[in-house]
Amino acid sequence: MARSTIRWAPKISREAIARFYHEELTGKIDLKAAEEVAIRFYLRCQAMKMYSAGELQCPDCGTVFRFQPEGNKPESRGGCPNCAWYATNQEYTNSRRHKDLNATNAMPAVEHFLRIYPGCKTTGQLLIAVDQLIHAFHWDSQLSVPNRSFANNLIEGSLEQVVTFLDALSSVDTNLKTQWRQTVDQMWQRRRSKAEAGPAPNAPTGGSLKTSNKSQISTGIHPPLPGSRG
Fold this sequence. Notes:
Blueprint: H1 14-25, H2 31-52, E1 55-57, E2 64-66, E3 77-79, E4 86-88, H3 89-96, H4 107-116, H5 123-134, E5 137-139, E6 146-149, H6 159-168, H7 174-194
Antiparallel strand pairs: 1-2, 3-4, 5-6
Helix pairs in contact: 2-4, 2-5, 4-5
């Protein structure tokens, strides 16, 4: 019988997020539907926390444990402390590749979301928690400048696609959105300055995003959201 493989919570689709924002801000969503989207961010953040701690969740019994193989060889095994499941070093390493689970200097945003999510009791509270999370950045701890949008770790798509998508989303907090756009400009400028010549890879021309009224779902909503439902 084949062993279960290691699984990490996947990124969230842009379509699901856009629908969540639109239905909440137009009063068409219920708490169950909002939680179905928000829980995906919660599970993704849990995966990042485990990743950073060298932990994983047993695919058979659900136990979260630190992966500690009995040796350094690719075939060395590390097992779940509560059941017979195990993985090899190679399997564990392969499971982590190309998953964008390294939160690095955006970990405070992950920890904040994990802390406040259980207390969100309305659709408006869930939207605000998600909104704050996806507008966070990876910051250079020495230079205090933004390296990359953290949403790229959370949302499906390339960096440019995700940043453009966020720019078109409704403004849950207009002050946050304004600050976010200013930080995006700093991010593109930093990425260009590190390149030998020309714009940074995937950077929009000019390095600045211009909001299109046509692509906006809604604007000008500040928390607490009017009409939030329990």
